Amino acid sequence: MSTERVNPPELSPPTGFSHAVVATGTRVVFLAGQTALDTDGKVVGGTLPEQFALALTNLLTALRAAGGTPADLARVTVYATDVADYRANAPELGRIWRELAGRDYPAMAVIGAARLWDEQALVELDGFAVLD
């Protein structure tokens, strides 16, 4: 797959995301929403950064199982039950992202959610990737 991150100078400089991603490949992988579920199906982690790290790990595990890598991500949506908490933790969340997924950011959005499927979940990530 080839990707081109597009960040026009007419838009504010992106921090932790790309304004647009042009992806060329032959397979699209749609990734279901992932939260901080452990292998027993229990939400773990009491803080947003802890849950974000596991939710992202789970998303990347599904992606790798489908034959992809973090660089193949074209779009990720983050659903947060507390957007103010997400913004307050943004530097730590960015560090976690870079550690687990690198610096090739997909197009992203953060959406406030009143509640996620599992009541204890603070964050959920879904997305899609384009593979060769």
Quick summary of this structure?
With 132 residues, the chain is an alpha+beta fold. The chain is 27% helix and 31% strand. The strands form 2 sheets. The protein has a 4-stranded mixed beta sheet.
The major pleated sheet works out as: 4 strands, mixed
Shape: globular
The proportion of residues in beta strands is 25-35%
- How many distinct helices? 3
Oligomer state equals single chain
- Helix and strand succession? EEEHEHHEE
- Count of individual beta strands: 6
Helix content: 25-40%
Computed Rg: 14 Å
Distance between the termini: 5 Å
Global structural class: alpha+beta
Low-confidence stretches: none
Whole-number average pLDDT?
96
Strand line-up across the major sheet: 3-6-4-5
Structure commentary:
By secondary structure, the protein is α+β, with helices and mostly antiparallel strands. The chain has helices at 48-65, 83-88, 90-101; strands at 2-6, 20-24, 27-34, 73-80, 107-112, 123-131. The chain has a four-stranded mixed β-sheet with strand order 3-6-4-5. The chain is globular and about 35 Å long. 29% of the residues are buried.
